[in-house]
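Backbone-to-sequence.
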């Protein structure tokens, strides 16, 4: 069982995730959408949500932990408030509005594997054409997979590639390395970092 509150305390002074920064850069380069509506899935201590708000995006921030909401609310200014909606719920259970950006930094792997494909399809459906999704997924060589960690999704590279059929993968990096968890525990990580763009109305067929 993860102690998310400890995680929020440890991570709250970190920079926004690189995948989000790359995604924002791509939007700026090609012209931002008129409707700057973003979803931040599993926002945690809120570093990425704040980055989105500071870049003038309207953000629907979803996290199952009440503490995440408290943490984020303690960090935002009055001017941010009207641009932010927080939902405290399992992200699989939310009905999402059409959005231009879905940010999922280190959160999608915590979807139960039996729900993952349906959830992914739902997310891609909610992206407008030209919209982007960015974040991380875990690979099957990840140490937590070997430890049979519950309620977590691990993907082979083949499975990962299938998910992105119908999307343009603009950034991809597969990392396999020894490292540490946020609380300093040794761990072997197998991570897919991604930024992808929805090309058309074509719905991802898995
Ligand atoms: C590893 S943290 C990532 C936090 C932040 N996005 C970051 O990059 O540091 C995962 C977050 O996802 C949330 N989470 C895990 N499973 C979830 C689910 N099924 N629905 C909604 N949020 C979930 C946790 O509460 C936690 O805040």
């Amino acid at each position: 069982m993860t102690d998310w509150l400890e995680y929020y305390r440890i991570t709250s002074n970190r920079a926004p995730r690189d995948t989000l920064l790359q995604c924002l850069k791509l939007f700026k380069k090609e012209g931002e959408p008129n409707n700057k509506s973003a979803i931040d899935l599993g926002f945690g201590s809120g570093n990425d949500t704040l980055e989105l708000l500071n870049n003038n995006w309207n953000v629907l921030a979803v996290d199952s932990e009440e503490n995440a909401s408290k943490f984020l609310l303690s960090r935002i200014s009055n001017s941010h408030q009207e641009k932010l909606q927080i939902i405290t719920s399992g992200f699989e259970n939310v009905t999402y509005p059409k959005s231009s950006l879905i940010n999922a930094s280190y959160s999608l792997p915590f979807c139960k594997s039996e729900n993952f494909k349906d959830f992914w399809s739902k997310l891609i459906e909610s992206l407008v054409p030209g919209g982007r999704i960015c974040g991380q997924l875990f690979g099957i060589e990840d140490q937590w997979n070997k430890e049979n960690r519950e309620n977590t999704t691990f993907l082979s590279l083949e499975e990962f590639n299938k998910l992105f059929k119908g999307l343009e993968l603009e950034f991809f990096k597969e990392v396999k390395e020894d490292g540490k968890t946020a609380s300093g525990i040794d761990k072997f990580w197998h991570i897919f970092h991604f930024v992808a763009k929805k090309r058309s109305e074509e719905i991802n067929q898995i």
